[in-house]
Design a protein that fits this description.
By secondary structure, this protein is mainly α. The chain contains three helices and no strands. α2 packs across α3. The chain is rod-shaped.
């Protein structure tokens, strides 16, 4: 689009244009000053953020160490409780084994006494048979001798 003003086409600038251009230049300078000031503030803010990050990281690290220490102490306490329980259980087991051993020994004694009583009963039956024969059939001397002999013998076989 061609302008009708001969001054504009010749490259001559009007006073208003020169004022506006000077104003633009001034604004550019002001913006640069503000950017410079802002850059310093931004750098200061960045340093503050970095320090905050370092502090938060250290706090997290300290909290993690405290948690680990609490867990370690809890585990040691639990281990000590388990050791005491284990010791108590071992003592109970030892007592139980002793009781079982005494019971087994008592059972063996009872079995031995039972065998002796059975042997005594057998002996008394033999004596009874002898007396019975003596009063019923005095002529059967061979049977009576056998029974008397059996009655006075101690059975030598062991029963389980």
């Amino acid at each position: 689009m061609a302008t009708s003003n001969p001054k504009e086409s010749s490259g001559d600038k009007t006073e208003e244009q020169m004022l506006l251009e000077a104003k633009l230049k001034e604004m550019t300078t002001e913006k640069k000053a503000v950017f410079d000031a802002t850059r310093e503030a931004d750098e200061c803010l960045r340093q503050i953020r970095d320090e905050e990050t370092r502090i938060r990281d250290r706090l997290r690290q300290i909290e993690a160490q405290e948690i680990k220490e609490r867990q370690r102490i809890e585990m040691i306490d639990e281990l000590n409780v388990l050791r005491r329980e284990n010791s108590d259980l071992n003592e109970s087991l030892r007592k139980l084994k002793g009781t079982l051993q005494r019971t087994t020994k008592y059972s063996r004694t009872q079995q031995k006494e039972k065998r002796e009583k059975e042997d005594e009963i057998e002996k008394l039956r033999n004596i009874y048979s002898v007396w019975k024969m003596k009063f019923q059939k005095p002529k059967d001397n061979a049977r009576m001798s056998f029974c008397l002999k059996k009655a006075h013998e101690r059975p030598s076989c062991k029963r389980n």
